[in-house]
Amino acid sequence: MILEQPFVQSFIQMGTDGYDLGWHERNGGNLSYRLKPSEVEAVKLELNRNNPWTPIGVQVENLGGEHFLVTGSGRFFRHLSDRPLESLGLIELDETGRNYRIVYGFENGGKPTSELPSHLMNHAVKVAINPDYRIIYHAHTTNLIALTFVLPLQDEVFTRELWEMATECPVVFPEGVGVIGWMVPGSIEIAYATSNKMKDYDLAIWAHHGTFAAGKDFDTTFGLMHTAEKAAEILVKVLSMSPAKAQTIQPQDFRDVADAFGVTLDERFLYTK
Ligand code: 13P
Ligand code: ZN
After folding, report:
1. Which sign, positive or negative, has the C-alpha torsion 261, 266, 272, 273?
2. Average of pLDDT values for 196-206?
3. Which of 35, 74, 84, 139 has the fewest C-beta atoms under 10 angstroms from its C-beta?
4. Is 115 a catalytic residue?
5. What stretches of the chain show up as alpha helix (H) in DSSP?
6. Which residues surround ligand 2, an ion (CB under 5 A)?
7. Secondary element (H or E) of residue 265
8. Count of CB atoms within 10 A of residue 98's CB?
9. How far apart are CA 65 and CA 91, in angstroms?
């Protein structure tokens, strides 16, 4: 049974954890997972290869023939565990990477998330960098969204401010975070803009909307989103108490953390304020 496969169970668990943290009101957010060859092999007899091909809207040549587990458009994360066959489905890409077809799930007229172009373009960028990347996660992270109304929408500023909020942040996301200005969701344009940020980062914040995280497994991808959102929550609390910090982690402190934990931090984030 496909639903009993560990990767499906982990997918449902991750989405449910995000729902429990308040990141998935109504149908907010979406999740995609690129299957391993062994996982495709394990489920192949249950797949229906008779559905028509549908254009993705973008071309992801290096993902041709890959299978993805994806949340459904308009479906509620709240129902991932009690109505999985409506809430999620499996898709297969054709060899050109231009079209997909549904091979499992999306029952009762469902289809993949409206953010499929962003998900697949992000996967394409990440696979080209490291084939171990398998997950793209979009969540409506309350505090990161709140910050996009008060901080300049610059990668350097968001990275530095989040890093200052928790000593673990520069260790968990040493490459920093990307930010893009408000754009129409579900569009090809936002897919290009997001995947461009994914060349440099594993986190991309959409102003006034939410966050995308990329990762190699369910735990670390969820943990990345959780860590950034927690740092944002602390910053919202700090800014709510006072516009100025009485003390904070300084650039040399970050360099010392980098040495101690064996990570590299780009000096462009360690500017003098
Ligand atoms: P979907 O329901 O199509 O996944 O859209 C939710 C969302 O968060 C759009 O950005
Ligand atoms: Zn969204």
Report:
1. negative
2. 99
3. 74
4. yes
5. 6-20, 37-43, 84-87, 116-129, 142-147, 155-165, 169-172, 188-197, 218-241, 251-261
6. 210
7. none
8. 16
9. 10
Three-state SS for 213?
A: strand
- Determine contact, residues 165/190, Cβ cutoff 8 Å: no
- What is the length of the chain? 273
Give DSSP secondary structure letters for 33-102. Answer: EEPPHHHHHHHGGG--TTSPPEE-SS--GGGTT-EEEEEBTT--GGGTTTSHHHHEEEEEE-TTSSEEEE
Global pTM exceeds 0.70:
yes
Average of pLDDT values for 105-122?
98
Q: What is the dihedral of CA 44, 48, 51, 56, to 10 degrees?
A: -30
251 lines ligand 1 (CB under 6 A): no
Determine the distance separating the centroid of ligand 1 and the alpha carbon of 49, expressed in angstroms: 26
Q: Cα of 113 to ligand 2 centre, how many Å?
A: 10
Distance from C-alpha of 160 to C-alpha of 249, rounded to nearest angstrom: 10
Query: What tens digit of pLDDT does each residue of 33-62 get?
Result: 999 999 999 999 999 999 999 999 999 999
Tens-digit pLDDT profile for residues 119-144: 999 999 999 999 999 999 999 999 99
Q: How far apart are CA 51 and CA 101, in angstroms?
A: 6
Q: Ligand 1, residues 88, 114, 187, 205: which to mutate, most atoms within 8 A of Cβ? A: 114
CA distance 208 to 144: 9
Please name every residue paired with 89 in a beta bridge, in sequence order, or none if there are none: 70, 105
